[in-house]
Amino acid sequence: MSGLRARRLAERRAQRRRAARRNGMAAAASVVVAVGTATGMVSALDDGRGSDEARPEVTESPVLDIRPPAPSPSPSATKSASASAVPKKKPSPTPSPARTRTETGKQQPTTVSARLYRHPDSQVLDWVRANPGDPRRDVIASRIAGQPAAVWFAEYAPDTVTARVRTVTAGAAAQGRVPVVVAYTIPDRDCGGASQGGAPDLDAYDAWIDRFAAGLGSGEVVVILEPDSIAQSECLSGGQRADRFASLARAGRVLKAANPEARVYYDAGHSGWHPAAKQADLLRQAGAGSAGSSDGIFSNVSNFHRTADEIAYDRQVLAALGGPAGLGAVIDTSRNGNGAPADGEWCDPDGRKLGRTPTLDTGEARIDGYLWVKLPGESDGCKGAPGTFTPSYAYDLASS
């Protein structure tokens, strides 16, 4: 073999090795992204202290993605809008320069709702108790830990779910406050993506909902019913989607029959996802337009869209949905104080800020509440391990 041919052969082999390394790096990056979409949900899980006591804690919890799916179908779009799914997600609409400012232009005084319930067990409270000398403690304690937040039930554990829900609702009733609970065990959750899990099938889910409902008590309670279960349902076949929607409609009826004071809200995605008319059509199929199963819709869970945008979007969805005039909306405002990032970043993006503090008194027509469904400071997976409380991230949100 000539020296020239040998050199060319060596060059080709080197090129192949570099390509292999690039492919390996890309695959590794995909794994990192898949891990990094955790919502940091607070889950009321059985931690071995018995079925009569609930403790919200982060486990290997499902991961709630905050981005919409690609607008046109593709083979990969049959998966959920999670980071483990292959399709590129449509980024949040780019805000105008005015919309990148905070909603008030300055830090608002910290206020705490007199009506909403703060469950005494959470990662942020654990951190505050364990770090009395940390210079970030007072800011995190007053602006995050002191606020009421939702309690997630994301583990399929039918034998203990009634007692765990009852622990939360009974604790709230004892204080004369309103708890916010999240049911998140729909089968095919996240369509096999990073948040995969839930009940093994819809029959099992229906039975789980019955037991969940049995823990609601008789006082007022807000139920966030299955985030992403409707907005992400296009990853299912037509038959699968119809079956899921039938179970969601049943779930709403069961929850409200078990406790007539329960306020049940259905998944409306967020203002950067489906057009309002399309989302309303999906919601109608899932029973969200019926007073027997629904009190309205929720939006912006784990997302960053500005409250004003969500108010406008939710009103459009409700108008298109029809149904009783009393249907309303609740909005997750936990991290939306600076709106969605201009570059569409979704995983613990820099420059974000706490949104409006939780309240059931918004002063806005058809907007029933601003809630912290996602607990600020629990990482999406980029500033800390997915689903874990990250004090540096919490401090950034609280001090912006």
Question: How would you describe what is shown here?
Answer:
Helix 7 crosses helix 8 (307-321). The protein is globular and about 55 Å long. The strands form 2 sheets. Strands 3-4-5-6-7-8-9 form a 7-stranded parallel sheet, covered by helices on one side. A two-stranded antiparallel ribbon has the order 1-2. The chain is built from 9 helices and 9 strands. Helix 5 links the parallel strand 4 and strand 5. It has 400 residues and is α/β, with parallel strands linked by helices.
List keywords for this structure.
9 helices, single chain, two-stranded antiparallel ribbon, alpha/beta
Concise account of the structure shown:
The protein is α/β, with parallel strands linked by helices and 400 residues long.
Sequence-ordered SSE layout with sheet pairings:
Blueprint (H helix, E strand, L loop, with lengths): L2 H33 L7 E3 L9 E3 L65 H8 L6 H9 L5 E3 L7 H15 L4 E4 L18 H12 L7 E5 L12 H21 L3 E6 L8 H10 L10 E4 L7 H15 L6 E5 L34 E5 L19 H9 L1
Helix pairs in contact: 3-9, 5-6, 7-8
Order of helices and strands: HEEHHEHEHEHEHEHEEH
Number of separate strands: 9
What is the CA-CA span between the terminal residues? Answer: 67 Å
Rounded radius of gyration (Å): 22 Å
H/I helix tally: 9
Largest sheet: 7 strands, parallel
Class by alpha and beta content: alpha/beta
Give the DSSP E fraction (strand runs of 2 or more residues).
Answer: 5-15%
Instruction: Give the helix proportion (percent range).
Output: 25-40%
Overall residue-averaged pLDDT value: 80
Overall geometry comes to: globular
Q: What strand line-up does the widest sheet have?
A: 3-4-5-6-7-8-9
Contiguous low-pLDDT stretches (5 residues minimum) are 1-10, 16-63, 65-102, 104-109
